[in-house]
Amino acid sequence: MSGTGLQFQISGTTVTLRGAGQVNAAEGGNEDLQLGTIILPPGTDRTIVSGSGYQGTPDWVYNTPESVSVLSKDAIKDSQPRDSGDLFTGMAGVATAGATQNPGISVNIRGLQDQNRVTSTIDGARQNFQLGGHGYTSNVYVDPSLLRMVEVEKSGTTGVGAGGSHGGVVNYRTVEADDILEPGKTYGGEVNLSSGTNEYKFNGTAAFAAQVTDTVDVLAALSHKSLGAYDIGQNGAVPAGVSDIYDEANGEAVFTGSDTWSGLLKAGWDIAPDQRLTFGFVGYDAEFTTSTVNADYKNTNHVRNLTGTLTYDWTPADPLVDLHARLWFNRTENEQYREARSGYGAFDVGYAIDSLGVSVENTSRFSLPSGEVALHYGLEAFKDTTATAVVNYDEDDAGNDSWYTGPNPNGERTLFSGFLRATYEQSNVFEAWLGGRYDYYDLSGQTSYYGCLELDPRGRCARSDRVTLSTDVGSNGGAFTPEIGAAWTIRNGFQLFGQYSGGYRPPSMAEALLGGAHIGNILRYAPNPNLRAETSQNWEIGANFSYDNIFRDEDAFRLKATVFDRRVDDFIALGLVSGTPDYDNALEFGGFQYVNLDGPTTLRGLELEGNYDAGSFYFGASFTHTKGDYPSTYNSDPWGNGNPSFHQVYYIFVAPEYKISLDAGLRLVDDRLKLGTRVTHIIPAEQQGLNAMAYKPETYTTMDLYGTYNLRENATLRFAINNVTDVAYVDPLNSADFLGPGRTATISLNMRF
Fold first, then answer.
1. Is 432 exposed, middle or buried (CB count within 10 Å of its CB: 0-12, 13-18, 19+)?
2. Shortest CA distance to 607 belongs to which of 583, 584, 624?
3. Cβ-contact 411, 446 below 8 angstroms
4. Rounded distance between C-alpha atoms, residue 5 and residue 22, angstroms
5. SS3 content of the chain, % helix, strand, coil (to 5)
6. 391, 419, 311, 298: which is closest to 358 by C-alpha?
7. Which helix (H) or strand (E) holds 106?
């Protein structure tokens, strides 16, 4: 804007221009100043949260030569999700586990899941909480009612958030003041009230925002959700292997209810027209019960998730500076009360993780005679500290704390990561990039394991022959991973792209420090300080299509198609081992330990997300094909003190082989009424390890109906009927214990002021 006489101010996602009338006409100015066309580089304005793409995807996704999927705020509201796991039902390449008993979710991207393989963040703050048990260990607690968008990066990336993981990054972005304030107003609010059938009791959200001064804005929001134990679908057979936690007489999946409160505070200060400081806090409080045994043996859980961020953005006119820095903190804790069982008494146990992190990134741009160059570089670091505390109420259990703390050990893990990516662009037609990152981690903690004076022929020892030993475990290491790619815009609206990236995922504390025993029985666990980090080689080739005014004025077609190939070496999984550990005063051990699989794990597939929007109607679809090939053996003598033998892998999460989602709708009554339907078809893949022994997942299809009616300018009525055909199904990433909800109808009223 040099020479225009204009000044600009950035506040959140709004840019305000001032001073056009102050140009001095005597000096050659013109009060009616006409600006030339302003072109934003494609794929850079990621603050835009909605558009004409699939599920309201903004257009920048289809200008980005990488695998990115976005779920918009409107799509979240239209779907009326029962829990956060429903957010990803229609997203290509993404699946979820959980959110049946436990409202936390674990995201699977292209076959990789759990143990920090996939980074999850809330407003840039990592969510690293893990709780060992039956099934997945990673749990992310987030309220869909407070989200403005969900952004998923599925390919290798050199940006902030990818350090120490190679499965992708899930960014949950919460609402901002600009989402609440109407244009031209200095204050405003939004209220959303929902209720429904099948124990969807209540879901309410209230938000208020204000532009306190020209440079300060604030936002506050509060949400409450109450869910009961839902009925499963009645059409189709209940899978074999379902335990007693399914109440067949009432058709009820017990322990699937929860009571959740969430809150959000944000304050933004425009220090200068090109500098902004933002403080954010997100709180989550949930109470729920869990069990994988039967209705008489339940665990009462109280989870709190507290996330704080302090973000500094500096975007001056200088092309060498586009700086973003963030300091963040997260604490996630679960206070659990376990009722007495036949084999042991009742007790309280508290699991917690404190994470503290910082990131700084900058983009410098400059011109060459043949094109433009952008250097994106930065640093990120974080430290995780875990703690487990146990209170026994039964004196007979005294000294058995390792039962409870073993799979959830106390320890620390620190990770440092630096990255650089150079991008060359020529005439908005050709783009190429080269970069890499270096990760270094350090892990330490104290754990315990049960040793035996002598193993029986089955590799086990009698309960009376066990000896508990404590040991300190530590490991560290680092690696450089490269990234290279190119994109070519063949014609306006049609872009081809391809890239290669390396990946590096250090062992988690839950893997390296695993110890103790299964609560109340003789199944034992051992730490493995010799675990090697997972490494990967990731290829993808894709295409973006973006066309307007094809068959009629103002229609739009958007499509992103990607083929991917991922090879993971030293994949870490839980396995059965035996031998003598190389710890001090070690005794013989036979039980479970995290191990590196022999040979490569390959994950290949195809992803499609597309949408045609003609205004009065729209039709969208996503398609995912994922084929995984996992090694079936591993070295069961990781300590090198005996003859190695090989066993079958105990547990691996296998993504569905096919996932197809269709979304179509009509807009009627001058666009005041929208009616739509979604159909999701899941074909599970062959299970591995424990799941293969437990049950065989079945193919299933669900259908949802949804609608929106604008009562008046600032009042909207929404309704949804999920699982209309009342299908009985089990998500393939869950076990047969966790059946999905049956038919559920909801209605909500949204009001703005």
1. middle
2. 624
3. yes
4. 7
5. 5, 55, 40
6. 311
7. strand 105-109
Between CA 234 and CA 529 the distance in angstroms is 48
Amino acid present at 3: G
* More confident: 44 or 469: 469
In terms of phi and psi (left: phi > 0; alpha: psi -120 to 50; beta: otherwise), the region of 692 is alpha
Q: Is 39 exposed, middle or buried (0-12, 13-18, 19+ CB in 10 A)?
A: exposed
pLDDT tens-digit map of 224-277: 999 999 998 888 876 655 555 566 556 677 788 999 999 999 999 999 999 999
Res 414 pLDDT > 80: yes
Report residue 177: phi and psi, to 5°.
Answer: -60, -40
Tokens of 401: 């704390």
DSSP string, 216-240: EEEEEEEEEEEE-PPBBPSBSPPPT
Q: What is the dihedral of CA 400, 401, 403, 407, to 10 degrees?
A: -160
Contact indicator for 310, 354 with CB cutoff of 8 Å: no
DSSP β-bridge partners for residue 361 = 324, 378
Q: What is the 3-state secondary structure (H, E, C) of 374-417?
A: EEEEEEEEEEEEEEEEEEECCHHHCCCHHHHHCCCCEEEEEEEE
State the pLDDT confidence band at 457, using cuts at 50, 70 and 90. low
pLDDT tens digits, 351-406: 999 999 999 999 999 999 999 999 999 999 999 999 988 887 776 666 677 777 77
**Residue 229 φ/ψ, nearest 5 degrees:** -70, 115
Give CA separation, 100 vs 246, 504, 730, in Å: 12, 31, 10
